[in-house]
Write a structure and sequence with these properties.
By secondary structure, this protein is α+β, with helices and mostly antiparallel strands. The protein has three domains: 158 residues, Roll (Ubiquitin Conjugating Enzyme); 135 residues, no CATH class; 224 residues, no CATH class. Helix content is 52%, strand content 9%. It has 20 helices and twelve strands. Helix 8 packs across helix 9 and helix 13 crosses helix 19. The radius of gyration is 32 Å and the shape is elongated. The protein starts with a strand and ends with a helix. It comes from Rotaria sordida. This is UBC core domain-containing protein. InterPro entries: UBC, UBQ-conjugating_enzyme/RWD.
């Protein structure tokens, strides 16, 4: 079902965000900028001084101080602030050629003002301003007085923070009196504070700037769900966290009034990515219970593509298994294909979806039985391994790792049989070999290259499951609100580099732990030929020997000639 939501007071949310931004500016002032609120009863109008001398040390307007009035909309940060030159300060188009348009829900007042500093530093005029024009602007700035806040050039209001005030650091007092034990304790405490600070930063909504530890919010990942030309739904994960409030505000801004699948709408994430849906993550049990209905509704929407008013679209536990394994597999693929910075976020997304799925398995034991039954059937025969039953081997490997009854080693033989059988279609399509039943050792490099990415992904999926899915993983993840230990992430990123350089069957066979059975090129050829037979039985291919090809061709020709003669006779 589609869930109605309580309409949010966007003005109240914007007020909280402004206060938070101003507090952050006070804690971490930016050289060259000053901001204050002349009327404390109206935080939506701020006065700002932008000093180009401090931050921008070149350009024609070096040394200029611009007094701005910043008007913040009531749906901030979904709509960015508008900055105007203060009334009476005659800074017009003769000094700057264009209007600045830029913004993102992730911008704070600090980042917005930094954009403005850069804007003023480059006037973008067809002809550079003359010395007389620059001198005149200096005179205007020095003569200006704001009638609202009494700002003048000699007595700036707000005060512009100088760079030297930021970088000056007081020496630590009494450092020489610390014992080794005290130093060790101090080091541990600093590491704890650093870890806590990094955790708060990770668990902060990019839009509202609220965090799970200090604020009562529900966090999740934006998703872009697309429908292909035959109606299937595919989810793409936007690797950043936003809150329920931020997601609802986007829906309200676009005219929606409930949590549903807005297939033809697109919202913009903090990093500029498009999304049209959102799924909360598991951070702890309290966070899960608070967002349980939203999580279940989101999963049913991802599963069916709609949530509108029909009981048949309501959540069932099996949806959690299919949707979350698909999202874990998707984040694994994003991790494999992404850059190093992206890969860290993809690992974190994988672990968040893993922890959520594990919790569903804990509260719905039938999911564990479903996984075990699927594995048991998989071992029974080919028809239970077919693509129609097991559409994606990456998702199935995740479920094997989650099984309470089976281990990969017990089923590895059947997994590899099906994996290599599915590869035959792509080998036949992508390689230059005329008939795969006639392959020789010299063909193996061509064959490997035709399915190299697939082989890399198999190694990657096996190691991903082995690294992040084990009996004590819940304890590790819960200790850090769903995040894996940094050292594990770093080690896996390095392993990913090694996987991507595997370029021959001998290395691949060793990586998937088949080297005890496949010891030579001839063994590899035998493996491929056995896989051709299974592929034919599964209906993926129809590969026959050259002799059989000639027989089939002759039979076809004979049938054609017979039919031609029969029609001619009649």
């Amino acid at each position: 079902m589609s869930l109605p939501f309580k309409s949010q007071n966007t003005k109240a949310a914007a007020t909280k965000r402004i206060i938070r931004d101003l507090r952050d500016l006070d804690k971490h002032p930016i050289p060259g900028l000053g901001v204050n609120c002349p009327d404390e009863s109206n935080p939506f109008v701020l006065h700002c001084n932008v000093c180009i001398q401090v931050l921008i040390n070149d350009g024609p307007y070096k040394g200029i101080m611009i007094h701005l009035i910043l008007h913040i909309p009531e749906d901030y940060p979904l709509t960015g602030p508008a900055g105007n030159i203060a009334p009476g300060l005659e800074f017009d188009s003769s000094y700057h050629a264009h209007i600045h348009y830029d913004g993102s829900p992730g911008y704070t007042l600090s980042t917005a003002l930094l954009q403005i500093v850069t804007f003023f530093a480059e006037p973008d005029l067809v002809v550079n301003p003359s010395p007389q024009s620059i001198e005149n602007l200096h005179r205007i700035v020095k003569k200006f007085k704001c009638i609202t806040c009494n700002h003048t050039y000699d007595k700036p209001n707000p005060i512009v923070v100088d760079y030297t005030a930021i970088v000056s650091v007081k020496p630590e007092e009494n450092q020489e009196t610390l014992t080794k034990e005290d130093e060790e304790q101090l080091k541990i405490e600093r590491e704890r504070i650093k870890f806590q600070r990094e955790l708060i930063e990770k668990l902060t909504c990019g839009v509202t700037k609220q965090n799970v530890i200090e604020d009562n919010i529900c966090l999740g990942y934006p998703l872009l769900i697309k429908r292909d030309n035959i109606g299937r739904l595919w989810s793409e994960i936007v690797l950043e966290l936003i809150s329920y409030d931020a997601y609802v505000a986007e829906i309200q801004k676009s005219g929606g009034d409930k949590l549903d699948f807005y297939e033809h709408w697109q919202f913009r994430s903090v990093t500029g990515r498009d999304y049209n849906h959102w799924l909360p993550i598991y951070i702890n049990e309290n966070h899960f219970e608070k967002g349980k209905l939203i999580i279940q509704n989101s999963i049913s929407v991802i599963h069916y593509g709609t949530a509108r008013g029909n009981a048949r679209y309501d959540f069932t536990p099996s949806m959690a298994l299919s949707v979350l394994t698909a999202l874990m597999n998707k984040s694994a693929v994003q991790l494999f294909n992404g850059q190093m910075f992206e890969s860290r976020h993809a690992i974190e997304a994988y672990c968040h979806f893993l922890r959520l799925l594990m919790h569903f398995i804990d509260i719905y034991p039938e999911l564990d039985r479903k996984i075990n039954d699927r594995i048991e059937n998989f071992m029974r025969g080919l028809r239970y391994r077919n693509k129609n039953i097991i559409p994606d081997m990456g998702e199935f490997l995740i479920q094997i790792a989650l099984s309470s009854k089976y281990k990969l080693d017990e089923i590895r033989k059947y997994v590899y049989e099906e994996y290599f059988a599915r590869q035959i279609y792509w080998i036949e399509r992508n390689s230059s070999i005329r008939n795969l039943l006639d392959i020789r050792p010299s063909d193996l490099l061509d064959i490997f290259n035709s399915v190299k990415v697939s082989n890399h992904l198999l190694v990657f999926n096996l190691e991903m499951a082995q690294t992040f899915i084990f009996s004590g993983v819940k304890k590790f993840l819960d200790a850090a609100y769903g995040y894996p230990p940094p050292v594990i992430v770093e080690n896996f990123q390095q392993r990913l580099k090694a996987i991507k350089v595997i370029d021959r069957y001998s290395e691949f066979i060793q990586a998937i732990r088949l080297s005890d059975k496949i010891r030579s090129s001839d063994d590899t050829i035998d493996l491929i030929k056995r896989s051709i037979q299974i592929s034919n039985e599964q209906g993926y291919t129809r590969i026959v020997s050259r002799d059989q090809e000639r027989i089939d061709h002759q039979n076809k020709r004979t049938r054609y000639e017979y039919e031609y003669q029969r029609r001619s006779y009649h």
